[in-house]
Amino acid sequence: MEMEEMDRILCDEQLEEVLRLLPPRSTFSPSTADVSLVSKRWLRLYRSSRSTLSLRLSSGNCTPQALYSFLSHFPRLSHLLITIFPDHLPSSVASSCPPEPAQLCLQPNPGLQEVELWCCGSIVNDILTRLLENCTSLNSLLISTLLIGEVGRERLLQFITHSRCNLRKLYLRLPRALGDNHLLAVAEKFSGLLSLRLESCPSVSHEGLTAMALAMSNNKLEELALIDCHMEPGLLTTLGQSFRNLRKLDLSCNDKLADEEFISMLASFNCLKELYVRGCAGLTNASVVSMFESCEQLETVDLLSCDGIEAEAVELFVLNCLRLRQIYVEESKLSDVSRSWASKKFIEVIFR
């Protein structure tokens, strides 16, 4: 059937349904015509039929106003991915930016529920304002960004303190922005949090982390990550007392972790299923023994780059951790006995 004839026969609703069934453009073969170029009518209906959209933009040519104006042509979007590549950044700044470009992921309807922001730039400030004004259904927020400045720090605090959403998941990687006041605001505002991940936050103090943990002691937090944070003595004890329902704990890249307090903390985590201590050079074999003795539900553990943990402890762990399904460890620390038992118990061993 010729395009003109199809265009004449099909009403808007029928053509829109046909367009909705087409695969995403990224999966099209090179020989597949771009239906949005057939006519203005097809372009309009193609846009209105899309539930997913991916954009790749340059920060120098992207303004919030132009972006939101363009998105208004896609009324049925449930998943939006915007990639904004930073340009004209000083080399010293560019090298410290996250490896991912700026991304904004929105999903699904009704109402915006999940947002991810990865970027180096101040556009985050405007997006946070939009989220505060319009997104009451938001339940998951990830922000990983640099260079948001004092305005960005204040904008983030305003979002936290004045938000009308009920966040369940929060992941913050803000090396130059996150402070103790943000953490206390999170603890006071989002009492329903199930997952909290903090990464590379040097401006957050040990006192700030401790105060946050105490303020959240009544939460039913199931997942906690404190990656490359200030882990001073006393914090692990507070974590053990405050978050007894944890299912997943990530303390990677904290070289100040020590056996005594770590072992004491594990005694409180009877429900723990995933434990990540990659790069925690202060832990030794004693901590590994405590893992399988205290955490009988453990299924996944990451022991990579833990210089104080030896092959003998890994062997004991593989033999005695009854529910283990996945372990990250150096190949050099895996004995023949460990390999044999891992194979018999269908344990996946990951060396990277």
UniProtKB/TrEMBL annotation:
Highest taxon, organism lineage = Eukaryota
Q: Name its species.
A: Rhododendron griersonianum
Cellular component terms (Gene Ontology): SCF ubiquitin ligase complex
Specify the protein name. Answer: F-box/LRR-repeat protein
Which GO biological process annotations does it have? SCF-dependent proteasomal ubiquitin-dependent protein catabolic process
The family database entries (SUPFAM superfamilies) matched by this protein are listed as: RNI-like
Q: Which SMART domains match?
A: LRR_CC
